[in-house]
Design goal:
The chain has 481 residues and is mainly beta. It contains 1 helix and 44 strands. It is elongated. It starts with a helix and ends in a 6-residue tail after the last strand.
Length: 481
């Protein structure tokens, strides 16, 4: 019984150890956490340093690894992406900046995979028009009110007088308003005039004297002013324009341009019917629309786009002998369509073979197994020159003979050089009694002439190095004869 009990106990212990080992092995595990894939890094270059107030278009060049995808977005309503907003590898994003009517500059951002590209825009210039006085001020004096029309509510202006008998208590104002002046009684026997400055414009105020007739009364009926046209179409070249203002006699009116590429020709105000002259600047880009406010009526001016023109950058590119890729940036005036063409079969257009407006052309260059070569990429008649280097050439030289035996008299020996085309070589004498007859250098196959001086002494030996190889010249003496 004792023996059986010991065996039974040992067996139980062994089974317990085995169970524990089995349980431990079955429940163990190794958790491996892989590193997260880093976000694709991109670098950008903005073609537009600062947009003018009347708007513009720009391009952002995106540079990243070939397998990296990216997305572009704008958080500002006045910055609109006009091209495809996503891509993979190197590419570009085109955008448009709307006109800024505010006399303050503004800034926005375009986000490309977390990289913020700043877009700035200039402030709109302030334009003012001031109504002219309605006749002369009577000799007894009185108040003169001049209506000021501003191109934007934030445009500030002031009113001052250059003479003591015309005064004002006006403080600096902003936007549309009225400049009021007080004119003292004229006790002189002659009429007088003085100049006031309102919103940067000079206005002359005249005052009659006693015995002069009073100024004509203002119109009794309502001033319902109209224009001969409310829309006008202008060619891209721009230039002077005009529109007729129809107003009842005595009705004063003013005119102001609401964009900086339209300028009202002075005078910018009148009374009754008349002709308003204005000028439109040449259009450097896409078709555009602006307005003038004349006698409270809006005149809409539409200007045609500039003639299509293309600028390529960079103008020249170099590619190594092993081949590679390159890009050409295309900038256009207006919404111009274009095609890209290569002049050589080893120079292939890989992307952007055609486009509308600004864009990018990609190309690939095959390996060069011969001499240096040149091709072109043409876009809308403009070309970019692509130069590829020659393949590296290994030059070998065969020089013969390598040993020359000359007698003691003055002698002339010739050594031939065999080399591949384009392989340059030189030669130099290592002994003063061995001189080389020009030319002592060459390119490809050639020969070297060695002048051996007469030997008046013992036999001697000298060397000449030709194309990196040593030619030995042995000369006998006169004593050996």
């Amino acid at each position: 019984m004792g023996t059986r009990s010991f065996a039974t106990t040992c067996c139980a212990l062994m089974l317990l150890v085995a169970a524990l080992a089995s349980s431990t092995c079955g429940s163990s595990s190794i958790a491996v956490t892989s590193p997260t894939t880093p976000k694709c890094q991109v670098s950008t270059a903005n073609s537009l340093a600062s947009a003018p107030s009347d708007g513009a278009t720009g391009t952002i060049a995106v540079d990243t690894t070939r397998d990296c995808t990216w997305t572009a977005s704008s958080a500002a309503a006045w910055i609109v992406i006009t091209s495809q907003a996503e891509g993979q590898g190197a590419g570009s994003v085109s955008y448009r900046v709307s006109a800024n009517a505010d006399p303050s500059p503004r800034h926005g951002m375009i986000d490309v995979n977390g990289t913020q590209v700043a877009v700035a825009q200039d402030a709109a210039p302030c334009h003012f028009s001031v109504a002219l006085p309605n006749g002369a001020v009577p000799a007894g004096g009185g108040a003169v009110a001049l209506a000021v029309t501003a191109s934007a509510a934030a445009c500030t202006w002031t009113a001052t007088s250059s003479v003591g008998w015309i005064t004002t208590t006006m403080q600096p104002a902003a936007g549309n308003g009225t400049a009021t002046f007080s004119v003292a009684a004229n006790t002189d026997t002659s009429p007088r005039s003085g100049v006031v400055t309102v919103a940067g414009q000079t206005i002359t105020i005249t005052q009659s004297t006693a015995g002069q007739p009073p100024p004509p009364p203002p119109p009794t009926g309502p001033c319902t002013d109209t224009l001969s046209a409310t829309t006008q179409s202008i060619a891209a070249a721009g230039g002077p324009q005009s529109v007729a203002v129809n107003a009842p006699a005595g009705c004063a009116w003013t005119a102001t341009a609401n964009v900086n590429w339209i300028t009202v020709t002075p005078p910018a105000a009148g009374t009754g019917s008349g002709q308003l002259a204005y000028s439109v600047a040449a259009n450097p880009g896409a078709a555009r629309t602006g307005t003038l406010t004349i006698a409270g009526v809006t005149l809409t001016v539409t200007q045609a786009s500039a003639a299509c023109g293309v600028t390529l950058a960079p103008p020249d590119q170099s590619i190594p002998a092993l081949g590679g890729t390159g890009t050409v940036s295309v900038a256009t005036r207006g919404d111009c369509s274009w095609n890209a063409v290569s002049s050589a079969d080893w120079l292939q257009i890989s992307s952007g073979a055609s486009g509308l407006g600004n864009g990018t052309v990609g190309f690939t260059v095959a390996i060069n197994l011969g001499p240096a070569r040149t091709g072109t990429v043409s876009v809308a008649g403009q070309t970019v020159t692509v130069t590829q280097a020659a393949v590296l050439q290994l030059c070998t030289f065969v020089v013969s003979p390598l040993t020359i035996t000359a007698d003691s008299h003055r002698d002339m020996e010739h050594v031939d050089v065999a080399a591949g085309a384009g392989c340059a070589w030189t030669s130099v004498s290592n002994a003063d009694w061995l001189t080389l007859q020009p030319p002592a250098a060459g390119n490809g196959n050639g020969s070297v002439t060695i002048n051996v001086d007469r030997n008046m002494g013992m036999p001697r030996s000298g060397t000449v190095t030709i194309a990196g190889q040593v030619v030995t010249v042995q000369q006998s003496s006169d004593d050996e004869k």
